[in-house]
Fold this sequence. Notes:
Strand content: 15-25%
Strand order of the largest sheet: 2-1-5
Order of helices and strands: HEEEEE
Largest sheet: 3 strands, antiparallel
Distance between the termini: 60 Å
Helix content: 25-40%
Radius of gyration: 27 Å
Number of helices: 1
Shape: elongated
Amino acid sequence: MFAVSVGSVIWFGLGLVLMVVLWRTGMAMLQALSAPPAPPPEPGELRKVNMRYRCDVCGVELKLTLAPDEDPPPPKHCLEEMTVVAPLYD
C-alpha cells in the first residue's frame, strides 16, 4: 500500500512538536493580553517612572525612577527648571 520511510515519520513528528509549541506559545500570549491590568497604587504611594532631566545652565543630568504620580513636574537646579531628555536606549 503506502511505503512510509523513517525520515518522513521523523519530519511528521517534528512538525507535530513544532505545532504544539507554537499553539501553546500563542495561547499563553493571548491569556497574558486578556488579563486585567494591575490596579493603580493608592494615593501617596510612589510609582515607577523613567524620566531623565538635564539642567540647561550647568548640564547636570538626573534620572528619576520613583514619583508620586506618573507625570511629575520637572525638578529645579541652578534656580531653573530642568528640561526633559529623551532616553537614547530604552
